[in-house]
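Let us practice reading a record.
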Amino acid sequence: MEKEQPKNGKNQQEDKGRQSRRDFLKKLGLIGTASVAGAAAMYTGFQYEQSKEKGDKVKVLTSDNKLVEVNKNELKDAKPNLEALQERGRDGIPGKRWVMVIDLSKCRNARQCVKACQSAHRLRPYEYHINTLQMQETENTPPYHMPKPCQHCDNPPCVSVCPVDATYKRQDGIVLIDNERCIGCRFCVAACPYSARMVQWQEPKYAKQDKGKTYDVELNVPQKKGTISKCLFSADRLRDGELPYCVSACPNGVFYFGDENEDAVTNGTTKETVRFSKLLRDNAGYRLMPELGTEPRVYYLPPKSRIFDFPEKSILDDTDHA
């Protein structure tokens, strides 16, 4: 068998050159494929970004009260910022002076106001920000029911005695408590002549469920053991343009709520809006213990011409909450 003749140096160099060209062409093909794929990916991304820009726009209110417009598909859930909530809770709602009117002639002790408040502020059945009292001026006058929330005084003694600025009065007339600052000294409880404040003696009812939530001073949730809480005039609802929880829940038209600057209050049951000054003038409106100089922002209409009869038994024995 004839042996294969070894290739000379020139032939070997030619073979290597052909192999190198083949390798180069293969690599060039791979690079070209990758370039095409990369270009396609870039174009797809560009189309996506373009489609986002052409998507539906929505208007949102930022934490500093600016109305901005963003793409709907870019909206994401964001955890409320404690600092922003604290700041707006202190500032209040500019231009407003909130006021409440309670018509005692219409109160039937339905206690829906109490239940709505307890539900919103996550209170136990025996914890109250608003309660209904059974009243009787003299033995010769008929008894009546009286809802009693915080009076949100214009000259609040509770504010002046707080050593840590935890309780404060806003420009819109509402008195709030900041439980991030409250040390539970209870000076405000002792100073309030209306007994409108309560102490969180035990762990709040929903402490486990509310763990990790950002504290909202306008809702006073989550609450903390050892701090003070009270009626807030439903400051969180007012910011959304809605009536307070107690006002909306009453089935008997007892509550009016509105802005003194506009001289208008709205009935939570009938949704009728009337002049605040005329309502007081025509019905002999009054405030609790005006001689103390606290200047409450809650007004009462006397229980004249009551539309509901009071039960014919001692008010001390009356436990009917229907």
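A brief commentary: The helical segments are 9-53, 82-91, 112-120, 157-161, 187-191, 235-239, 245-249, 276-283.
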